[in-house]
Amino acid sequence: MPTAKKDFQTPGVIFQPATTRGMQQGINTVLNAVAPTLGPLPRFVAIERIAMRDSMPERLDSGGTIARRIIQIQGRDADVGAMFIRNVLYTLQEKIGDGTATAGVLFQSIFNESLHYLSAGGSAMRLRYFLDEAVPLIQSELDRMTMRLKGKKQLSGLAATITNDSELANYLGEIFDIIGEYGRLELRNGRTRAIEREYIEGIFWEDGVHSREMIFDKTEMRTNFEDPYIVISDIEVKEPEEIVPLLELAVKHDIKNILMICNGFSDRALGLVLLKPNLERVKICAVKTPEIAMTERIGALEDIAVMTGGQLLSSTAGDTFTSIQFEHLGRARRAWATSDNFGIVGGKGNARKLREHIATLRKGFASLEDAEDRKKVLKRLGKLMGGAATLWIGDSTPNAVEARKELAERAAEAMRGAIRDGVVPGGGVALLNCAALLRQSIPGMTDPDQIAAYRILTRALEAPMRTLIRNGGGDLDEIMAEIKQAGPGYGYDVVKREVVKMSDAQIFDVVSVVKEALYAAINGASLALTTDVIIHRKNPPESLATTS
Amino acid sequence: MTDETSSTQDFIYCLAATAGFGLGQPAACFAARNAGLFRSDDHGQTWYDATTSLQLSQAVAATAVALPHDFERYHTVLAGMAGGLLRSVDGGKTWSVPPVPTPPPMVTALVLSPSFSSDGIALAGTMEDGVLTTSDSGYSWASWNFGLLDLTVLCLAISPAFRADETVFAGTETGIFRSTNGGRAWREIELPIGYEPVISLAVSPAYQDDHTLYAGTDTQGILVSHDEGDSWARLGEHFHGEPVNNILISPDYALTRALVALSSGQAWISRDEGTSWSQLWSDLSEAGLEISALFTPAGFESGQPAFLGLYGGEIRQITFP
């Protein structure tokens, strides 16, 4: 069969100065689209729809998402630059959920100012060395400014800074005051135009009973067990004989209620446990093993085992119900199940083991880089904290609901970081304070590349505040002069249009977000500056070749 | 003690009294005991069963009792029992059994908000159900243990500035948890002793200024924090290996720096923030009597009265040496 290949551009090797010219054009194109979104009064970016072109364009104010939507720009060299910065911003968003506009503004300033210096004969590699050298200095200054947020009011203030949505911010402040950095928050599409929240005690999974016959409270359509025993497994019950040892165990130990987590429960086995004489002795409610992917499933079952003090019976380890022992059973104060969910309240496992287990998961979480892996561990940690919050997000149109939900997701991620790592004065004030520190250290330097690097960074660290004021429609020079006169800690409240002490005005930035944004910007700009050659490829990889 | 129920098996968990008790003014004291909830209206001369109006077929152990500081005006008494709670709004004459989450909890500790008469907030620690809270003066109770990873609560302590800071501490079998939102959510506190049981807690009366609290452990002595529980230091080796069952802080702690601790049936006093300790009423331990509960109506100065709950159920009035 003949293979028709798409008309890809011709291959080529691009050298300086075309490399830098192209990269700069692409980088600035993307960053000029991102910069207007910085701050509480952002301008929006409208993204043309690929399908349904007559519908409303997608309106975005998230730098990372905007960058991700740009999948190609005109000019091959410029496209390389655009894809470079796209990757920097989107990776940052995946990692910490916020800070992409700040990173973009910092990146743009460092990159463009550095190119000026390099065109005057500076060394790119030495400049990169000194730019990287300044990172720990700035980060330690940020650490020095870090403070902890306490209570609903302060957390709501932070949420308001991130979302510029007072209703959403109030709910997020209340929720994170309760669930903390590792707590479980479910974001769902609202049932009305308003935002609603709900708290659920205990741990629950989105897996329900194997058969509605096992729902014992037919009025509430729910099974409620007090002081139940819990079987924790991913084994499938096929034959009634397999369940007999468990029934015998129940009779022997006078067990009245069993929540049985298993991968399947046959009708014949169901017939046995629902026999009236058996039901009078013990009620068994079989629920589906949570999670689908094997590693997540085993993780969930391990968590239940630690929480309830039971032992996991694993099909992969060759365990069966015929050899079940009393010590395999977990215990809890309460358990419940419906056709869609089951939950456990007050697991009776060893609290010390549970806390050690959680500490191990937290340690693992802190060292994970991959966003998906972090999400999985966070989900487990959230469940183990013993409760969950659900935020039902409403708005006027489905698009608005989606946008608000995405905003809530980003804010939630940033708030977890804020509780975990602390906050610094917001509105670009923290970075402005760092600029003052760098400026002070320049007079003692003799190396021209070092001096240039520190001057470039000094200007870059002022850029977020300048952009923020510009985006808010303020008079840049007048306001900057007023801020400098007011002293450290003061900045511009873009919404109220006045110079304020940021901590008094509850305007904060998450320190980990600022640090990551700073690192992404300096590291990314350094890499871009030391890129000398672009190679354009003739064909895409074989696997992407299309056939007719 | 002059009731007829004291026996070698009886145990006094706690004593709670209205202002003026032991000081010659009309006042009442409640004793939470294995034999039930008892009351004295004559400064401890005689005691009687405070729950006779319930007409219980058998004695139910009372494990905790708490009164608001303005009891004379408000008349509410809350008591923790084996299997639930009791509430009286007429000073203990009649009682109601408020609904609690099932299965029935075993209450281990009770604390009331300093503004209980206006906010109606109280918290009850339980053996297996974490902390139950009420915000309607004990009429209804709910469990909300978000972040409380250990549901075996052995003691509670509430900030004197609770109205402003909403801070509560819970001592559990694996350490201390802190809530800064009135018990709606809890956070672990890292201790230098690892996951060890904390069986008593005491918050400084000047907590909003000195941010100080003490924790008595099962085997690791006493710990102190001067920053609201963020960091802790061990207080010498005095009680090492011995359970510190109760810690009381002098009402004028800011001036006297005085503490009293109950450990292994003996009472100890420190007048230097817990650095050094001397035994109180050593003649009691020489006579083989062990103290399980202590109530001090007027501080720890010499000559001030103290009420001791002794193993076996006797309650004895004594003065500070």
Percent strand of chain A: 15-25%
Q: What is the makeup of the main sheet of chain A? A: 8 strands, mixed
What count of helical segments of chain B does DSSP give?
6
**Roughly what percent helix of chain B?**
under 10%
Mean pLDDT rating of chain A: 89
Instruction: Please name the CATH topology of the largest domain in chain A.
Output: GROEL, domain 1
Helical run tally of chain A: 18
Question: What does this protein structure show overall?
Answer:
Chain A is of the alpha/beta class and 548 residues long. Chain A folds into three domains: 12-147 and 426-536, GroEL-like equatorial domain (GROEL, domain 1); 149-198 and 386-421, GROEL, domain 2, CATH 3.30.260; 204-349, GroEL, CATH 3.50.7.10. Chain A has helices spanning 18-34, 63-69, 76-96, 100-119, 124-145, 151-163, 166-179, 244-252, 267-273, 276-281, 294-308, 351-367, 371-384, 398-421, 429-441, 448-471, 476-486, 511-529; strands at residues 12-14, 45-47, 58-60, 184-189, 196-201, 203-205, 223-226, 229-233, 236-237, 257-262, 264-265, 283-288, 312-313, 330-337, 342-347, 387-393, 423-425, 490-493, 498-501, 508-510, 534-536. In chain A, strands 6, 7, 8, 10, 12, 13, 14 and 15 form an eight-stranded mixed β-sheet that branches. In chain A, strands 4-16-5 form a three-stranded mixed β-sheet. In chain A, α1 (18-34) packs antiparallel against α4, α3 packs across α4 (100-119) and α5 (124-145) packs across α16. Chain B has 321 residues and is mostly beta strands. In chain B, 8% of the residues lie in helices and 38% in strands. In chain B, the strands form seven sheets. A four-stranded antiparallel β-sheet of chain B has the order 1-2-3-4, with no helix packed on it. A four-stranded antiparallel β-sheet of chain B has the order 8-9-10-11, with no helix packed on it. Chain A binds chain B through residues 150-152, 177-180, 183, 199, 201, 226-227, 333-334, 346, 348, 351-352, 354-356, 358, 384-387, and chain B through 101-103, 128-130, 143-152, 172-175, 180-181, 184-185, 187-188, 195.
